[in-house]
Amino acid sequence: MSGHSKWHNIQGRKNAQDAKRGKIFQKISRDLYQAAKAGDPDPANNPQLRLVMDKARAANMPKQNIQRAIDKATGAGGANFEEITYEGYGPGGVAVMVSCLTDNKNRTASAIRSAFTHSGGSLGANGSVSYMFNRQGLIEILREDLDKDEDEMLMDALDAGADDMQADEEMFHIYTDPSAMTAVRDALQADGYELETAEVTMIPENKTEVPSDKVSQYQHLIDELEENDDVADVYEAGFIPEA
């Protein structure tokens, strides 16, 4: 019995690690696609693509996964991928946006609708929740081993052209106008900063607390969406208070 319990615990940890790794790969795949789509698919001529590819290798992402993401952007292999955004309300009425990259709209729409339904949420029409989010550039820098306090980092960010900055124990979160993100990113890198994230994303204007009796359903919705291979990103306006 104890042997079974030990195996079960090990398997549980492995499954959790695999799920975390899958989400990391998913995000990197999205970044690879966007970098290749926005510029030259040859990394020798595309600094942003080189940056994301370095991140992919550091995360031990398989070479075929990297190439598949770039092929999606270039249409290699004959597949035509479309970017589609779905909007809806999760459990407790929390606004959720789902950015997808798909070669089969019917398959993706069915899967996204099912995810919302399974979790007690509902899929909405275009524009039903997008007005609650702002499109912004987001640059994140790890604080670990960085000899900068918040005031110093804020001044460097503003000098680079950023609009604002927030900080927590682990990360500096730097916000820019979407059109300025690339310039701010390049300026910070020129100053010697190593960037954890540099992207244009959707930031909710306000966060809604997830009701305590809906937390499990809400987490299930986000997990199911993020585990879908067609989903590139999930933007959520909910937060779960610490116990």
UniProtKB/TrEMBL annotation:
Compartment(s) where it occurs, according to its Swiss-Prot or TrEMBL record: Cytoplasm
Residues covered by region (Disordered): 1-21
Keywords associated with the record: Cytoplasm, DNA-binding, Transcription, Transcription regulation
Main localization of the protein described in the UniProt heading: cytoplasm
Record-level GO cellular component terms: cytosol
Domain TACO1/YebC-like N-terminal: from-to ranges: 5-75
Gene3D superfamilies: 1.10.10.200, 3.30.70.980
Protein name listed in UniProt: Probable transcriptional regulatory protein FC60_GL001354
Residues that span the membrane, as ranges: none
Pfam families membership: TACO1_YebC_N, Transcrip_reg
Domain TACO1/YebC-like second and third: 81-236
Organism: Limosilactobacillus gastricus DSM 16045
Molecular function as annotated in GO: DNA binding
PANTHER family listed in its UniProt record: TRANSCRIPTIONAL REGULATORY PROTEIN YEBC-RELATED (PTHR12532:SF6), TRANSLATIONAL ACTIVATOR OF CYTOCHROME C OXIDASE 1 (PTHR12532)
InterPro entries found in the cross-reference section: Integrase-like_N, TACO1_YebC-like_2nd/3rd_dom, TACO1_YebC_N, Transcrip_reg_TACO1-like, Transcrip_reg_TACO1-like_dom3, YebC-like
Family: Belongs to the TACO1 family.
Biological processes per GO annotation: regulation of DNA-templated transcription
